[in-house]
Specification:
The protein is α/β, with parallel strands linked by helices and 158 residues long. It has two domains: 72 residues, Helix Hairpins, CATH 1.10.287.180; 79 residues, Transcription elongation factor, GreA/GreB, C-terminal domain (Chitinase A, domain 3), CATH 3.10.50.30. Helices cover 39% and strands 26% of the residues. The protein has three helices and seven strands. A five-stranded mixed sheet has the order 5-4-3-7-6. Strands 1-2 form a two-stranded parallel sheet. It starts with a strand and ends with a strand. The model has no long low-confidence stretch (mean pLDDT 91).
Length: 158
């Protein structure tokens, strides 16, 4: 089984979602199925079929989260030794060499990536280009249509 890196924050979010699904969503859908059964004929009972479908989604999500957590290698970014080298979990300040715009990304696991929040997957082209580089280095990233150049301005572990 291949271990996949995940930040402590990402693991906590998944555990929280799992707890909510098991303690709230699952009991609610079980109750809805019981109520729909009480209405009689199940073959034409839309409420019953909708509740069963919802139950399938909930159970599938529970299984998916449990599988992700079981193969996760949880890394507490705050415990990493500060360095000027980019590693998993680091927050990296970059300057685009073409237009001098600044961007900041945190390199996270695939399951917790959210580009709008500045979290990029370890498997993304930009993260792969950044890993093991140091402050002051310029990295080339193959982007759709062209290659982009970024200078690493700062590396933080928060």
């Amino acid at each position: 089984m291949t271990r996949s890196p995940m930040t402590l924050r990402g693991a906590e979010l998944l555990r929280s979602e799992l707890k909510q699904l098991k303690s709230e969503a699952r009991p609610q859908v079980i109750k809805a199925i019981a109520e729909a059964r009480a209405h009689g004929d199940l073959s034409e009972n839309a409420e019953y079929h909708a509740a069963r479908e919802q139950q399938g989604f909930i159970e599938g999500r529970i299984n998916e989260i449990e599988a992700r957590l079981s193969r996760a290698e949880v890394i507490d970014v705050a415990q990493l030794a500060p360095s000027d080298r980019v590693v998993f979990g680091a927050t990296v300040d970059l300057e685009d060499q073409d237009d001098a715009s600044a961007v900041t990304y945190q390199i996270v696991g695939e399951d917790e990536a959210d580009i709008r929040a500045g979290r990029i997957s370890i498997a993304s082209p930009i993260a792969r280009a950044l890993i093991a580089k140091r402050v002051g280095e310029v990295v080339e990233v193959a982007a759709p249509g062209r290659t982009r150049s970024y200078e690493i301005i700062a590396v933080r572990y928060t």
